[in-house]
Design goal:
Blueprint: E1 9-10, E2 15-20, E3 23-28, H1 30-36, E4 39-43, E5 50-51, E6 56-62, E7 66-70, E8 75-80, H2 90-93, E9 101-105, H3 116-122
Antiparallel strand pairs: 1-2, 2-3, 3-9, 4-6, 5-8, 6-7, 8-9
Length: 125
């Protein structure tokens, strides 16, 4: 059974996100890290690059596969979590404690997602 914290929003493509001040912090869910297995590399977008809601934000490589992570909002990449460069496996041990990117949402871009209850139903739990 996957962990699904109640204080976050979720996407159907298994990203979690939360609005903190004027930035949206994005990571992958516990369900996603289980599907990936052992994460070995994160390919980040460039800080300052524009992203579209539902568009590819970055790629995570594991021993099993390489998977895209999608943006929950339209916006601009504000920062990336370089702490994961030397220890990408932290995404497996603590996916909610290790964010991937922070986005500055475009003006008027909604930060809507699935609630924890809705996400649990989506993953069949």
């Amino acid at each position: 059974m996957s962990k699904v914290p109640d204080n976050l929003l979720y996407s159907k493509t298994h990203e979690w996100f939360v609005l903190e001040g004027n930035l949206v912090k994005v990571g992958i869910t516990d369900y996603a890290q289980h599907q990936l297995t052992d994460v070995v590399y994160v390919e980040y977008p460039k800080v300052g690059s524009a992203v579209k809601a539902g568009g590819v934000l970055l790629t995570i490589e594991s021993v099993k596969s390489a998977e895209d992570v999608f943006s929950p909002v339209d916006g601009t990449v504000s920062s990336v979590n370089n702490d994961l460069d030397s220890a990408p496996e932290k995404l497996n041990s603590d996916p909610y404690g290790n964010w991937l990117v922070k986005l500055k949402p475009a003006s008027g871009s909604p930060t809507k997602g699935l609630s924890a209850v809705e996400y649990r139903k989506h993953i069949g739990e």
